[in-house]
Write a structure and sequence with these properties.
The complex is a heterodimer of chains A (236) and B (220). By secondary structure, chain A is mostly helical. Chain A is built from six helices and no strands. Chain A has one domain. Chain B is built from ten helices and no strands. Classes of the chains: A mainly alpha (236), B mainly alpha (220).
Chain lengths: 236, 220
C-alpha cells in the first residue's frame, strides 16, 4: 500500500513538472508557424491527446482479453478506466481539431481519414460505456463489455482502411496539413515533451479511475454485507 | 458445430416462415426509409441517381437493426435462450445458426426490395453478378456483427436502444464497402476489387471473432 501511494506521488509530481515544462515550451520556446500562425500551437495538445486516446483503447482491448481469461475484476476496472479516459481524450481531440482547422483550412470539419476514424472510435467507445450502464449484474456487465472492447478494437484497422480508400477516391476538399513533414527541431522537441506530459496525464487519470473503481467495489461489498446482516437480524 | 448450426437455423427459419415478422418488418421499414429520402431530398436527378446505392444501404442498415433486435428478443421472451445456453452443444454452433438465419432474412429483404428500389430511383443494373455478390457479402457482414451485438443487447435493460448504438459504428467499414460494391454493380464506378476484398475480410474477421467469443455471451 505504501509503495503504491509512493508511486502515485512520484507520478503526480513528474506530471506537474512535465506539464509545466510542456506549457512553457509551447508558449515561449516553439517558434510561431510561418503560415498558420499562433493557432498552430494547438497541435502540441491535439496530437498527444490523440495518441493517448488510442493508447487507452489499446489498453481496453488487452484488459478485456485478460478479463475473459482470468475473470479477475481488476482487469474489468482497468478496461473501464482506460475506456473512460480514452473517450475523454477523444472528445478533446474532436474539440481541439476543429478549433485548429477553421482558421487554417477554412472549415470546421472535413471527412478526412483521420478525422473520420477518430469520430467512429468515439462512437464505438461511447457505445461501450453506454452498454455498461444498462447491465445490472456486475459479472455479466464485465463479460459483455469485454466482448465489445475486443470486437471494437478489431474493427479499428478495417475502419481505417475503408475510410482511407474511400477518401482517396474522392477529391480532397482541403490540403491536409502535413504534420511531421519538415518539422522545425524546436517544434519537434516541444511535441515530444508534450507527448510525455500528456502520457503522464493519461496514466495519472487512469490510475485514479482504477482506484475509484476499486473503492466502489469495496463499498458495494460492504453494503451487501450490511444488508445480509440486517436481514439475519430481522430473522432472529 | 455444423449440426447445431443447422438445427438453430431451421428453428429460426420455421418461426420466420410461420410469422414472417423479421422480413416483413424490415421490408416495410426499408421502403419507408426510401420514401422518406424521396421527400427529404429530390432524388430524381442524375447526381442523386449516382448516390442511389448509398440510400439503399442506409435503408438496410436501419431496417436490419429492426430484424436483428428481434432475433434474440425472441429467445429472451419465451426462455428459449436459457434452454439454448443450457443445451450441451457448441455455443459457436448456436451463433452460426443464428447468424445464417439473420443473414438469410437480410438477403431476402434486399431481394424483395430490389425491384422497388429500381423503380423509385430509376437505376439500371449493369453488372448483375456484382450485385449478387455485394448483397450476399453485405448481408453476411451485417448479420455477423448484428447477431453478436443483438445477443449482447438482449442481456441489457435497453436492448432496442443499445443495438444500433453498438452495431452501427462497428459496421462502418462494411457499410462503405457494401455501398461501393453496389455502386459498382449499378455502373457508377469502373473497379471495386478493393471493396469486394474489404467486405470479404470484414466477413471473415467478424464471423471468426464472434464464433470465438460467443460462449461468453451465452453464459449466465
Amino acid at each position: 500500500m505504501g509503495r503504491r501511494r509512493m508511486g502515485s506521488a512520484i507520478l503526480d509530481v513528474t506530471l506537474l513538472i512535465s506539464m509545466a515544462t510542456a506549457m512553457a515550451l509551447i508558449f515561449f520556446y516553439a517558434p510561431i508557424e510561418s503560415k498558420m500562425g499562433i493557432v498552430q500551437k494547438i497541435f502540441y495538445v491535439h496530437v498527444p491527446l490523440a495518441w493517448n486516446a488510442f493508447l487507452g483503447f489499446a489498453i481496453v482491448f488487452v484488459a478485456s482479453f485478460r478479463y475473459l481469461a482470468t475473470r479477475d475484476p481488476k482487469w474489468d476496472a482497468r478496461a473501464l478506466s482506460a475506456a473512460e479516459v480514452g473517450v475523454l481524450f477523444t472528445t478533446l481531440v474532436l474539440i481541439t481539431g476543429p478549433i485548429w482547422a477553421k482558421p487554417v483550412w477554412g472549415i470546421w470539419w472535413t471527412w478526412d481519414a483521420r478525422l473520420t476514424l477518430t469520430l467512429v472510435l468515439w462512437l464505438i467507445y461511447m457505445g461501450y460505456l453506454m452498454l455498461r450502464r444498462y447491465v445490472e449484474s456486475t459479472e455479466r456487465r464485465a463479460v459483455l463489455a469485454a466482448i465489445v472492447g475486443i470486437t471494437g478494437f478489431i474493427d479499428v484497422p478495417l475502419v481505417y482502411f475503408a475510410i482511407r480508400w474511400w477518401r482517396t477516391q474522392h477529391p480532397q476538399p482541403v490540403i491536409a496539413g502535413g504534420e511531421g513533414a519538415g518539422l522545425d527541431p524546436r517544434m519537434a522537441t516541444t511535441l515530444w515533451v508534450c507527448v510525455v506530459a500528456f502520457t503522464l496525464l493519461f496514466f495519472a487519470l487512469y490510475r485514479r479511475r482504477v482506484a475509484l473503481e476499486k473503492l466502489r467495489a469495496e463499498a458495494d461489498a460492504l453494503r451487501d454485507d450490511a444488508e445480509a446482516a440486517r436481514a439475519e437480524g430481522a430473522n432472529i | 458445430m455444423l449440426k447445431t448450426a443447422g438445427v438453430v437455423l431451421w428453428k429460426d427459419l420455421r418461426i420466420e416462415l410461420r410469422t414472417k415478422d423479421a422480413v416483413s418488418a424490415a421490408l416495410v421499414f426499408s421502403i419507408l426509409v426510401l420514401v422518406i429520402f424521396n421527400f427529404a431530398l429530390d432524388v430524381n436527378t442524375p447526381e442523386m441517381r449516382r448516390l442511389a446505392a448509398g440510400f439503399f444501404w442506409v435503408a438496410f442498415a436501419f431496417a436490419g437493426t429492426l430484424s436483428l433486435n428481434r432475433s434474440f428478443a425472441l429467445e429472451k421472451e419465451s426462455g428459449a435462450g436459457r434452454a439454448l445456453a443450457l443445451a450441451p452443444v457448441d455455443p459457436a454452433g448456436i451463433y452460426a445458426g443464428k447468424c445464417l438465419a439473420n443473414g438469410l432474412f437480410l438477403f431476402a429483404t434486399q431481394v424483395i426490395a430490389l425491384p422497388l428500389f429500381v423503380v423509385f430511383f430509376d437505376v439500371t443494373i449493369v453488372r448483375a453478378w456484382a450485385l449478387v455478390v455485394s448483397f450476399v457479402l453485405g448481408s453476411i457482414a451485417f448479420a455477423a456483427t448484428g447477431t453478436l451485438f443483438s445477443a449482447i443487447a438482449a442481456n441489457t435493460r435497453m436492448r432496442e436502444l443499445l443495438l444500433p448504438l453498438l452495431f452501427l459504428p462497428v459496421s462502418v467499414p462494411a457499410l462503405i464497402a457494401a455501398v461501393e460494391t453496389t455502386s459498382f454493380a449499378l455502373g457508377n464506378s469502373e473497379s471495386a476489387s478493393f471493396w469486394f476484398t474489404l467486405l470479404l475480410v470484414y466477413d471473415v474477421v467478424f464471423v471468426t471473432a464472434s464464433l470465438l467469443v460467443f460462449e461468453y455471451v451465452l453464459e449466465e
